[in-house]
Description:
By secondary structure, this protein is mainly β.
Amino acid sequence: MHFEIPFYGHENIRSLHQKTIEITTESDLTLNGDCIIGVSANCGCNDIPEKMKHLLCNSKTNIIFTIKVNDFTFKVTGRGHDELILTHPHDIVIRKSSFVCPRTLATNCDKASDSIPRQMIKALQNPDARGIFTIDVI
């Protein structure tokens, strides 16, 4: 199953977090949000299609995330989790750990925001940058 979430860049994107990657529907971002790579996304965890939520709520589910901005592409692999809640209205977080909260979309990911190439982050620091966060459940 395939789902795409458009988002925008922001001047305060730093992408330095070592354990998570986040996109949010919120339009503002402080420097404290060092895992956030996109703002003004068109959905949070709560808005993920029900069929996909069902697949994500299984620890055996493999997921490929693709982040695209301009000519840059970055891929992350992760897993579903039996205890996912998927109810947060604004945020989507993918994690290297197995921690679960309403913002968590996937766990045991192989990369975090500090792994994203700095050229891609520089592009995301432009508020006019448009990105796509793609979820592929395999």
